[in-house]
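General statements about sequence and structure are easier to judge against a single worked case. No coordinates are needed to read the tokens, only the vocabulary itself. The sequence in question and its structure tokens are set out directly beneath this paragraph.
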Amino acid sequence: MANGKGEEVKLLGAWASPYVARVKLALHLKGVSYEYMEEDLTNKSELLLRSNPIRKMVPVLIHGGKPICESQVIVQYIDEAFPSVGPALLPVDPHERAVARFWATYVDDKVLPPWGMLLRAKTDEVEERAEWMRQTIAAVDALEEGVRECSKSKGLLGGDDVGYLDVLLGGMVPWVYATEKISGHNFFGASKAPLLAAWMERFAELDAAKAVFQDVDSLVEYAGTVLSGTAVSN
């Protein structure tokens, strides 16, 4: 499928991946038309292997025949490559842009790794699960302060409009609900992370979120049958 300039845009992804959801959110928010191609990550396509030979992972955006890898990089690329369509995702102010990028990196480095390990841990691995839970809660506590800094008491992390950090966190929202069904714990619960909880409710009501978000029950089933394997996206 081509964008306004006639350049073909394709997205290689895996339906359950929160990282792929980020890219879908950015494309929907910017109003960029694209072709989505679901990957079988147990039998990766030649296109994926050729497009991301280093990591061999999704998501991969292919724009005009040129691949872009890593979800954070892809979202920034979409914002820069399509400046005339949809809202700007990254702040114009250099300091605000740096802050948004800092917290985005924090999410990927400190929040998602222990959370993912918790979901993959077996029920009888009590000590391991307790440690991953502790690390996830600590990371979310710190992220709550990041929400305070970036939102400036407004509804979204980009202020009045959806921004870069909204998109990066937004891809996680269905997994927040899925984790609650799996473990009974909501890391973005109002009692412990009221700013994150309020943000999540607002973000989930966006048209782009409704168009992109995975079915939570399907994610729960996926977690029980597939997630015990190796991480598949970035």
About this structure: The radius of gyration is 17 Å. Residues 94-120 form the longest helix (27 residues).
